[in-house]
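Suppose you are handed only these lines of text.
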Amino acid sequence: MIKVGIPKETYPGEKRVALIPANIPQFKKAGAEVIVQSGAGEEAGYPDSEYVKNGAEIVKTREEVFAKADVILQVRALGANPEEGLKDIPLMRERQILIGFMEPFFAKNMIEEVAKKGVISFALELLPRTSRAQSMDVLSSMATISGYKAVILAASYLPKMFPMLTTAAGTILPANIFVIGAGVAGLQAIASAKRLGAVVRAYDIRPATKQEVESLGAKFVELGLESEEAQDQRGYAKDMGEEFYRRQREMLTKVIAESDVVISTAAVLGKRAPILITEEMVKGMRPGSVIVDIAAERGGNCELTKPGEVVEKYGVTIIGPVNIPSSVPYHASQMYSKNITNFCMLFIKNGEININLNDDILSSTLLTKDGSLVNSIFN
Ligand code: NAD
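From them, the structure of the protein bound to nicotinamide-adenine-dinucleotide can be written out as follows.
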């Protein structure tokens, strides 16, 4: 019988779990048993007893999970857990399958180690953004959570309320929110800020986002810089170069100065996030304003962002949150688990593992196989 193993996450502060009890029956139906390290789901709100109720076997140690499982499911593996994750490598064995976030662009050496062991690893960051892959798209699931939580963070630090209120004590004006980057996280930030009653504007260099921004009831800020050229064939924004970003910063200065809250989400796949908010621009904001820089983990969109910290400068609070999805671990795990289950169902069927590399979802996420690095990102 195929065994699917769920070790407890070891990245510092990580509260999510890769598989929740509700998805175990799908594995059973496909002919696989699930083994869970005791306490793996505890911090996300899924106790051992619920895993047992849904048919999983609980084992005491991480070593046991790695020794017994054919397929290991993690939230953060390899490059996404660069220190603690190293301890797992000696536990892995030939032809064992490893799936999770792996930060493959920034962890070539570590991935080489795993390749040498003969492990078959899949990095979920590399899923194609196609309609067939949508049900497995962990990046979108986690970005949805980040967009929502960024707004909640901004609201709790802002010395103002978001909604317009007409009260006996006078009229409270709504907060002005500006969202930079209208991808999955940005669009969720827009929707969440609108729900709280703020006036929302947004900007992205991909022109296709204008309609999406407007459909959420926000205003699209036109800088005249947006162009089809800004997007690669997968839909990701390209690195536009320093001269472009300089012009962009110049044009964003006024909108940023007028905003109570800026939520920045601009990212370029596999690269450092572009700097779109300089120290000068922060100086131009009203005291009490808040910047939530969701791109903090990628270096940040604001020059003053310190990843993992809350900085106050010129009266402006600059929040550089890292690992936001882990701060909403119950639903982040629910979404991640559903996505990873759908991914596993591509190659676990009738009690057998069959990896068909003609399937673009499997071939584009595959990092290591038969002792080598096989993904084109390493070329
Ligand atoms: P992302 O996290 O890579 O980047 C966030 C946003 O920042 C993007 O919208 C990007 O255009 C924007 N950005 C980059 N540089 C910028 C700059 N200088 N100024 C302003 N904005 C900038 O993006 P994502 O949310 O992962 O989405 C990437 C693409 O994938 C999008 O085209 C999205 O529509 C698409 N997508 C498709 C599917 C699907 O079809 N299954 C699912 C999710 C996302």
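What can we learn from it? The mean pLDDT is 96. DSSP finds eleven helices and 19 strands in the chain.
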